[in-house]
Design brief:
7-stranded mixed β-sheet; Aspartate Aminotransferase, domain 1; Aspartate Aminotransferase, domain 2; 4-stranded antiparallel β-sheet; 14 helices; alpha/beta
């Protein structure tokens, strides 16, 4: 008797994969999209035309080559990598997280990260057969130093992720606490990865720590820079360490179109810096307005998003969506996020619509 598809899936697919939920992407059609921390600004028409012409000249009949090597050198300068460091490219930072899981997946290896945090740390670890250790943050989303140090001593993780700023709480952690965590991981022969996805909006960076610690890596992406649709991330660290991790990278993982678009963005970094400055200004203006709403608590932000606690997040989310504004209801992601919404900072017009929709939905 021919097996049914259900029987075939039960026989073939891993049970843990069948039990997982896929990464959820909300349908934003017809809505003001403020749920995914994207740069809301389109390029000026003259730059759109220039980009189109450059992409049209790319040799898409050839595998990636010299232009990708040029992009690496341009990013080295742009990110101000310390001496003795190098970087590798990824198809978004998500791929680099997975490459790290592949490279570090020795028997019994585990990944450690504070929670709530970026879901891909855990998802990548589990899909690659590694253990995952989540350490809850404090009630105000600070690192629980004692709990982190205890978990590091007990589990001796191969990889410890620290998002800087954190997602979805948008805050920076205390640097003195981080320094002690970095030292503890170093004593256990593990690696620390600082995920700086929101660096364009942050007042601090950990890039300089690469010069002091050979076991520290910095992960960045051009998604928040303004190229979310391009998918381009980069991982920085000591040259010898990056050379080993690079062995787990698929060949030609970054397309010539992605690389050319990234080079174009670096050629016009001043335009993207102008956009980031405006978003930082809008973030502060939005924070001030949110503090005026009764029953609403906005948390400090160093990213292009603001986490807010409201009396009823499900009601507020539904009300905002009915009024044409899509945000992210993160309440179900972790107990510390009870009744929390994550608001992406948009254009001045989008932020006004978002604020009005939230106020009306309370």
């Amino acid at each position: 008797m021919k097996p049914t598809l259900s029987e075939r899936l039960q026989h073939t697919l891993r049970q843990d994969v069948q039990s997982m939920h896929a990464y959820a992407i909300q349908d934003s059609r017809g809505l003001i999209k403020l749920d995914a921390m994207e740069n809301p600004f389109a390029l000026p028409p003259e730059l759109q035309q220039e980009l189109g012409q450059r992409l049209g000249r790319v040799a898409i009949n050839r595998y990636p080559g010299p232009r990708n090597a040029e992009l690496i050198e341009r990013l080295r300068a742009f990110a101000e990598l310390p001496a003795g460091c190098r970087l590798i490219l990824g198809n978004g930072s998500d791929e680099l997280i997975d490459i790290l899981s592949v490279a570090c997946n020795r028997p019994g290896a585990s990944v450690l990260a504070p929670l709530p945090g970026f879901v891909m740390y855990e998802m990548s670890a589990r899909l690659r057969g590694m253990g995952f250790v989540g350490v809850p943050l404090s009630a105000d989303f600070a690192l629980d130093e004692a709990a982190m140090l205890a978990a590091i001593a007990q589990h001796r993780p191969a990889l410890t992720y620290i998002a800087y700023p954190n997602n979805p709480s948008a805050n920076l952690f205390d640097d003195a606490v981080i320094d002690r965590i970095v030292a503890a991981v170093g004593e256990q022969r593990g690696l620390v990865v600082f995920d700086e996805a929101y660096q364009p909006f942050s007042s601090r960076t950990r890039m300089a720590s690469l010069a002091r610690h050979e076991h520290v890596l910095v992960l960045r992406t051009l998604s928040k820079f303004g190229l979310a649709g391009v998918r381009l991330g980069y991982l920085c660290g000591a040259a010898a360490l990056i050379a080993e991790i690079d062995k787990a990278r698929p060949p030609y993982n970054v397309s010539v179109l992605n690389a050319e678009a990234a080079l174009f963005a670096l050629d016009h970094a001043d335009e993207y810096a102008r956009q980031a400055a405006l978003l930082r200004q809008e973030r502060e203006r939005l924070q001030a307005r949110l503090r005026e709403l009764p029953g609403v608590r906005p948390f400090p932000s160093e990213a292009n998003m603001i986490l807010v606690r409201v009396p009823d997040s499900a009601r507020a989310f539904a009300g905002m969506k009915a009024r044409g504004v899509l945000v992210k209801n993160v309440a179900a992601l972790h107990p510390l996020l009870a009744d929390c919404l994550r608001l992406t900072v948009g254009t001045p017009e989008e932020n006004k619509a978002m604020f009005d929709a939230l106020k009306a939905s309370l």
